[in-house]
Every structure is written in C-alpha cells, then in structure tokens.
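Team,

Forwarding the record for the chain on the shared tracking sheet. I've put the sequence and predicted structure together so nobody has to dig through attachments.
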Amino acid sequence: MTEQVTPEASPQRRTWLMVLPLIVFLALAAVFWFRLGDGDPSRIPSALIGHPAPQTSLPPLQGLLRNGAQVPGLDPTNFMGKVSVVNVWASWCVPCHDEAPLLTELAKDNRLQLIGINYKDTSDNAQRFLGRYGNPFASVGVDGNGRAAIEWGVYGVPETFVVGRDGRIAYKLVGPITPDNIGSALKAEIDKAVKAPSVSLKL
C-alpha cells in the first residue's frame, strides 16, 4: 500500500497567507480614517446631534464671582430661547489653556451665551485658571464625578457644543478651539444656529 504524500504549500502561498491579515487590517483602518474626516478627531460624529441637550443640572463653582455675585451653575432650562455654546474644560487640561483666549473673544458675541462645564477639577485650580485667563462663561457647572460629561457624550476635554434656541444640540467640536477651526467650523455653526427658526421644544 502506497502512502500518499500531501504536497507542502509553496513559499509564495505561505507568504500570502501571512500578509493577508495585515492587508485586511490596513483596508479597514483606511475606511475608518476617511469616514472620520481624514483622521480629524474634531469631525467624529455625535449621536446627540439633533437631540435635546442633556437635562443635567450642575452646582456652581463656589467662590466664582461676577460683580460680587456668585456665577450660577448649569441650569438646562437656560438653553431654551438662546443659542448656547457649551465648553467642557479643566485646569489640568493643557489644550484648555491654549483655547482660553479664543473663548474670551467668543464671549463678546452677544448673539449667544457661553456655558462652562468644569470636568473633574478642584475648585481652587479651576478658579485660578479663570483668574488667569478671565471668565468668559455666563454660568459654570461643576462636574466633579464626570457623570454630566458621560451624558453629553464627551470623549475627552476640551469639547465644545452648539445648542440651538430649540434646546437641541446642533454641533459638536472634539478637541480644542483653535485659530483655524474657530472661524471655519465653530463660528459657522453658531451662525447657522442663530439663523435657524426658533422652534418650541418640550423637554
């Protein structure tokens, strides 16, 4: 009885089998890269776009004063009827320091209200941060445990949201506000929100 010998795979075939998983991985990576806007993390889509802003109330940053009065915390009812820019920030966040002067300039736009969510920070450090750059926010809510950031779908600080007069999230900017994107992206989305018809929304 003759023993049947199975021929070994050719060197070319072995090489192809080794390289195939890498090719598949690179192809999938390329798809994700282009779908997210050429790798720009600021263009990561948000599931909250078009949905009501989270109804999370946050306490104020104690000791943060304006004209001798405590700056209020986050009250979701204040979104209705106004275009709001919500910035999630922290004193320990390096890019937050870079974008702070741009937020101060943005706060001069009387068509909107600027709202801050102070993320997992200490009161003293947060106040020093705002003392250094100036406080651009009409209200600052303290998110000490990060729960509000989860409800807002925050990937990491800083992040900025535009909320329309109807109380719905119109836009999300992932990452810091920069001289490049403040005009081309953020202010453009603010203009859209300002021009949008005011629609009553029951929350």
